[in-house]
Design brief:
alpha/beta, Rossmann fold
Length: 252
Amino acid sequence: MTIPKIKLTDVRKSFGKKVVLDGVNLEITKGESLVVIGGSGSGKSVLIKCILGLIAPDSGSIQIDGEEVTHLKGSRRVELMRKFGMLFQGGALFDSLAVWENISFARNKETGFTKEMARTLAVEKLKSVGLAPEVANLMPSELSGGMQKRVSLARAIAVNPEIIFFDEPTTGLDPIMADVINDLIIQCTKELGSTTLTITHDMQSASKIATNIAMLYKGKLIWKGRAQEIYHSQNPFVDQFVHGRAQGPITS
């Protein structure tokens, strides 16, 4: 029996009286590219934060490679986090650090990891996302929005992660640059053999990068299937969302 890379069982999370995750069950296999769609407030970001341990679920189980991780702390939690890479919405680059320092940030505390090694790593990862070595010396404020996304992707893959999370990776980009980022995500994750979890509103992006798509609605996982099946799901909630229709069971 194959152990899922990520497995959630009856995960629940509330903030006061607001229920955000309402019994989520989800399995992501090794090498799978899962995209989670859903409207604002459906629980997508909280789902990722629970898996990363940034937020503790109220109940339920979260396993990574078969290991329960909901109560990990200290050095064991730090060790687990080495498996992850993250591309944040908006890039979230450190304004006061040069591009090369941003990319190598997660490696800088490693024993014996020198400044020269950090620069070499940054140039290597910049090449992976289609940027020239000279970009390494620029500051984030000198980059266009598309370049910032590429640098953020370079930082996400800098530790050769087993699992990568993408938070709205194409938000704020024009359609052409969004497609460039989609292609880079596919290329980089394939080269690394990573398992990926993406949250997005962008159905064009979701359809391109996903092997499977799942939909969250009011804290519940209401559908999961192959990416090519999403437009023929026969689920009225999914159908309304992916076609962007004002009329349907989803109300604002």
